[in-house]
Structures are given as C-alpha cells and as structure tokens.
Amino acid sequence: MDARPTRPSLAALLFGLDAPVDRRTYALTGFSLMAFKYALDAGLIYAFTRTFWTPLEYLSPALFTRREIMEGDQAWLLVVLMVIALPFLWVGLSMSIRRARDAGYGGTLGLLFLFPGLNYLMMLALAAAPSRPRPAPTTPPHLTPPDRRPQLRAALLGTGVGVLIALAMVGFSVYALGDYGNTLFAVTPAVLGATSSWFFNRQARQSVRSTLGVACLSVIVAGGAILLFALEGIVCLMMAAPLAMIMACLGALVTRVLASEPAPLPGQPVHFGWLLLLALPLAATLEVAPRSGLDPMAAPETQPLREVRTSVVVDAPPEVVWPNVDGFAELPPPRSLLFRAGIAYPMRARIEGQGVGAVRHCEFSTGAFVEPITRWEPPRRLSFDVVAQPPPMTELSPYKNLHPPHLGSTIRSRRGEFRLVDLGDGRTRLEGSTWYALDIHPRVYWSVLSDALLHDIHRRVLQHVKALSEASLPGT
Asked: What is the pLDDT of residues 170-209, one digit of tens each?
C-alpha cells in the first residue's frame, strides 16, 4: 500500500486552514498571486482611467494612492477592486497562518498579514524559514456542560482585554496621530475580536455561535467604554458599529482555530500574540505617513472631492423657482431620526447682494455656511464656494459640549450648485450638488454613509423649494 501522504486539493491549499504549506509552496503561490492581482488591478485602472498604476503604488501600505487615481467619476472602481481583493486577502491570510505553523512559529504570526507594511516583511521571513516538526497536539481540558464558569471567566477576560485595546488605539490614533484610518476602524476591531476569541477558546474550542457572540459583545462593551470616557458620541459609534462588528467576527473566527493549537517550539522567547498588539500602533503610524502632508483644511484643489447630486421635479417654471433658490424662509422642523439625533440640518438661507460676489448664508442647526457666489445665471444656475462651515453634527452624549476631533476635519464641503432645467411643460427639474472632501477611512465605507446623509440634506432643501414655488403659482 502506498504510504505517501495525500496532496491536498488546490482549493484546500488556497482557502483551507489545515493543509500544511512549506516555504517553496508559500513563495511560489504568494508571489504569483501578487503578480496576478497587480496585473488585474493595474489593467482595470488603466482601462477605465487611462492611468498607469506602478508596482510601487500597488505596494503602498494604504489605499491612499489608488484613491487619488480613481476619485471623481471613477470612484466606483475602488469598490470593484476591493471586492476582487477579498478572496486574495483570505488566501494570503490562511496560507500565512499555515506557513507560520509549518515553520514552527505558531499560526498567530500569520495574522501579521492583516497589518499594512508589516505584512511584506512577514511574507519574506516566512518564505525563507525552513519547515520544522510540530509538537503533538494536546487534548484540551474537558469542560462539563453544567459548569459554565470557566467559559464565563474567559469571555469576560477576553472582553476586558479587547476594551483596553480599543481605548488605547482610539487614544493613539485619534488624539496622538490625529487620524481616522483603516487601522482604527478595520484592523483594531479585528484584533479586538481575535483577542476575545483567543481567551474564550484557549482552554477548549467553543462553538462558532458563542465565539461570535463574545466578539460582538466586546465591540459593544468597547463602544460603551469609549462613550463613558467621552472619546466619541453615540451617533458616530452607531455609524462605525457595522464595520467594527464584521471585522471583529472575522478576527474571532480565525483565532478560534488558532487558540487551541499547540504552542510554538520550546525555547522561543517571543509570543506573537503580543507582537500583534504592538503592531497596531506601528500600523497606524505607517498608514498616516503617506497622508501626513494632506491638510484637511487645505485649499480645494489639494483635496480629492466627491460630488453628491440630488434632484426633484417642481410643478412650476424656472422663473418661479429661481427666487426660492438663492434664499428661502424657515424650514419646518425635521422628522428624520438622524437629524433629531444631532446630524446638522438646514433651517433657512439668505443672500447678501446680487450676482457673482454676493454671499449666501445657509444656516444649519449647528451654525451657518458662508458661500460666496461664483456663478449667477438666473433662472438656470447658481454656483458657490464654501469658505466656512459649522460642525457636521452635534454629538449625542451624556456629556455636554462633546467635540471629538473628527467634527472639524473629516468631512469638508468645498462648493455647491443649484441647476434649474426647464422641462418644457411648465415644470422644472431642480438639481442640487455638493462637492466635499472626506478624510476618514476606509473611505469606501464612510462615503456610503456621508453620501446618504448629504442626499437627505439636499432633499430637505429641494422639497422645501418645491413647496414654496408651487404654492406661489396663481390659483394655488
């Protein structure tokens, strides 16, 4: 009988968590997939933007370079590239975990694959490290079903450590680096979930459901601690929660497999779990470095802008609609729960002067926008810059006057425009656009939320202009 070991299938080798990976397989597969992904990404970027994406930009620790390439009309391409990246991300993570095991370091080292910048150093090290025999697995202590106390203690310990990690990273990333980046919103929740899962599963592997429950509990408790220490408000925590929950669950699932594996070879002084924790602030520093010269208060031409456009059809000709565009009376109180929770909403608008050079003041619940007119074409177009703006929200918090740093820097309106399109039948399509800079990451996630909020703000104004215009027609 042939006693040779059965070679794993290609799917098990790439996507599984059990098939061993030697250094030759790791190097050939890893660098081949990197080359293939670079060719695929660079080809898509060139096809849609006519911009050549260099290998150096591909190896950048952050998404900053590719965002610059695809801002504007091609911003959707970034979403496509991120979806394409997901299977490559899993292959790289799973193979790095198994390569680290095969090299005798313990699979925890493979989690460095998730840390921008450090992942390349780890991949080179693992590609060079020889295979070593693994110690025989030990049977974890048996937990009798009626006794849940060890599980409860482990869950509480993991949650507590995760909360400390979250608080430390909010303090370091936000208040030391002044950055709201991928490390804070994606990597830190993954490490939080991984930490809670490791403590919960290290004595005996628990069910997937209970592991995910502990990871989500850690996110909730961490959010409560952040709120308690007045680092953030309720609305921002709720907006960040979906992404944090997803990343925490992914980290928990991976670590559930690693928690009960045999320890690294005897005599190794470094526990790679601690290395992961130390890597968090380093990853945040590496991420902010490429953006360090980008001032959120800088001139519009130095900031990549997003346009949000909303429209309504008004049953009135443009000549009737125009007087209600450059200034409008008091809007009714908002019904939206988001506006009532603290998101800034428009209340009224007035204009000083006529034509280019006049200044429009759009008053929001948090203060006034100051908008010098740059294009005055009645009754077709009104364009303006934004030279001053109030905070985008009033944080909902038990504490008065809470003002986290992101309120003044992460989202900045740069200019706006109203367009009145004559539909030829006594009706007008009224369009409102805002161009804004977003300096919070991952931008793909936050832009979905900020775009939706701007659409709500636009609709509130446009529907009010529509009501005023239609009410001013004779016979109404």
From this structure: 888 887 887 888 888 988 999 899 888 888 888 778 888 9
- With beta carbons less than 8 A apart as the criterion, state whether 252 and 193 touch: yes
List the one residue out of 116, 243, 253 whose CA is nearest residue 189: 243
Residue the block writes with tokens 């009104």: 382
Which three-class secondary structure state does DSSP give residue 310? strand
Model pLDDT for residues 311-337, shown as the tens digit of each residue: 999 999 999 999 998 777 788 888 888
Mean pLDDT of 397-411: 70
Distance CA(167)–CA(229), nearest Å, equals: 9
DSSP letter at 366? Answer: T
**Exposed e or buried b per residue across 96-135, where buried means at least 16 C-beta atoms within 10 angstroms of its C-beta:** bbbbbbbbbbbbbbbbbbbbbbbbeebbeebbebeeeebe
Q: Which residue has the higher pLDDT, 407 or 140?
A: 407
pTM value is 0.68
The average pLDDT across 103-124 equals 77
Check if the beta carbon of residue 256 is closer than 8 Å to that of residue 210. no
Decide: 451 and 429 in contact? Cβ < 8 Å: no
Q: Letter for the amino acid at 280?
A: L
- Please give the Cα distance from 122 to 332 (Å, whole number): 58
For 19, residues 6+ apart whose C-beta sits below 8 A from its C-beta are 8, 12, 13, 98
Burial of 402-433, coded b for 16+ CB within 10 Å and e otherwise, reads bebebbebbbbbbbbbbbbeeeeeebbebbbb
